[in-house]
């Protein structure tokens, strides 16, 4: 795998009437093409801020971010952002929701529409194309939100706790479904999560951040001895508990 996304010495602070609040400090890491990386850290440490910087919604005060060696603000690489809530509009059908991004970006081409149709078919929502979001289960809504993101053919997927609003059983099923979809679509992905098990089961590497202002405490490669790895199968790997204990210890040990 070749290097795709790189952050070098990135720093960020928020400014208010009360003064400067540091959010990120000297963040450096890379994500290889086709790799799935998870970010974990204490609540409020700056994980979502980091995703917002990579998405180009915020600009770092220090350091730089590149994609394929090109500064983020100069690249034409498409980035998809999946948030905690699905943000499906009830007044639109499932199909109208999943093509919303194409409408906004004026990409309603036969190629993109055909790709969207294939995604609906591949991931079990084709027969629900005319349904309203309220008629879908929580898991189906998240799949629709992911298809809406994938319809734009992003090269990089940013996932900000996309399963946190789901109950535990549904969360397991949906994370397994979406993990498989991201792998089958060969996407490069960066996931923010508070769930240690979720991070281990889905990611090739886990980046553990310190408390705010966040810096990198450790980067942990995940190597599980199971064939045809999926998020659900990963949880039964013999190495799973070892990684869980390592991450738990790092998150609960403060310098």
Describe the model.
The mean pLDDT is 90. α5 packs parallel to α6 and α7 packs across α9. The chain is of the alpha/beta class.
Strand element count:
10
Spans of at least 5 consecutive residues with low confidence? none
Number of helices: 9
Characterize the biggest β-sheet.
Answer: 6 strands, mixed
- Shape, per Cα inertia axes: globular
Approximately how much beta-strand content do the residues carry? Answer: 25-35%
Strand order of the largest sheet: 6-7-8-3-9-10
- Helix and strand succession? EEEHEEEHHHHEHEHEEHH
Judged by helices, strands and strand pairing, the structural class is alpha/beta
User: In whole angstroms, how far apart are the ends?
Assistant: 34 Å
Q: Radius of gyration in whole Å, from Cα? A: 18 Å
- Arithmetic mean of pLDDT: 90
Helical percentage:
25-40%
List keywords for this structure.
single chain, 255 residues, alpha/beta, six-stranded mixed beta sheet, 9 helices, globular
List the helices and strands and how they pair.
Blueprint: E1 3-16, E2 19-32, E3 36-40, H1 47-54, E4 62-67, E5 70-71, E6 79-82, H2 94-98, H3 100-104, H4 110-122, H5 138-150, E7 156-160, H6 168-184, E8 188-192, H7 196-202, E9 205-209, E10 216-221, H8 231-234, H9 240-251
Parallel strand pairs: 3-8, 3-9, 6-7, 7-8
Antiparallel strand pairs: 1-2, 1-4, 4-5, 9-10
Helix pairs in contact: 5-6, 7-9
